[in-house]
Amino acid sequence: MPAEIIDGKKISSDIKESLKERIEALGRSGKVPGLAAILVGDNPASQVYVNMKAKACEKIGINSEVYKYPRDLPEPELIKKIDELNEKKTIHGILVQFPTPEQISEEKVILAIDPKKDVDGFHPFNVGMMLAGKPTFLPCTPLGIMELLSRSGNDPSGKHVVILGRGSLVGRPLAPMLYQKTKGANATVTVCHTATKNLVSFIQQADILIAAMGRAKFVTADMVKPGVVVIDVGTNRVEDPSTKSGYRLVGDVNFDSVSQVAKAITPVPGGVGPMTIAMLLSNTVKACEMQSTT
Ligand code: GUN
Fold it and tell me: What residue ranges define each of the domains in the chain, with the CATH number in brackets?
């Protein structure tokens, strides 16, 4: 039987509806959540992402301010802008879209953002809080994956989750989020990476497979256990002359074959992507709520 499709668009739109209620409640006490998004340079994918984030904010009643700078912006000027936004009362969340041009250290950028406004959950203070199992801002893509699993009825508790990739945006933060002893987590986690030997033997053991390694259509039906739940985080551009742009997005999983044997699977696009944005909105609303009580 073909797999159930885990519909990230539908789940993210349910989440956005419930955020609207929290935004209305904040509005009754005169508060409007505000997000500042900073883009340095003209990376086409980053431009698309920042515009999508700003549009999603406006749609549910979050104020967004987008700051676009040329690719040769000196690092101190960016840090100065972040300092200014840290102090700005109408801004509750700050994000600098990565990757940044080479003269700008992503580490310095992350350290400059006030942890209370760190809606990406990248600041070492928030990473430390997460590892200690304390409430904090969690990074948007891993948080979106946790929500996709629980809202699709695929509770990871007691399951063997295999993560392909240890990147800083997904694999590295997701592993501790999945094994912590809380509701919606409590899994046994294996992280596979470039030095993993016999990779397929791990993929075969997965009850839940998270593919986040950035290799187009790498996972095929013969590698997985029948009945596996698959979350595909890959967004790989492949040439496709039949489209207007000349390319299309595919995941790290061969959807056509794996969807024939899996229990459930996320599509690309329309799976993890919309959840990342919904979680950014959620973190921004949370930042506003927290800053309103202090
Ligand atoms: N670039 C790719 N993903 C992300 C993300 O989640 N946050 C930021 N700031 N930049 C990114």
Answer: 30-117 (3.40.50.10860), 140-273 (3.40.50.720)
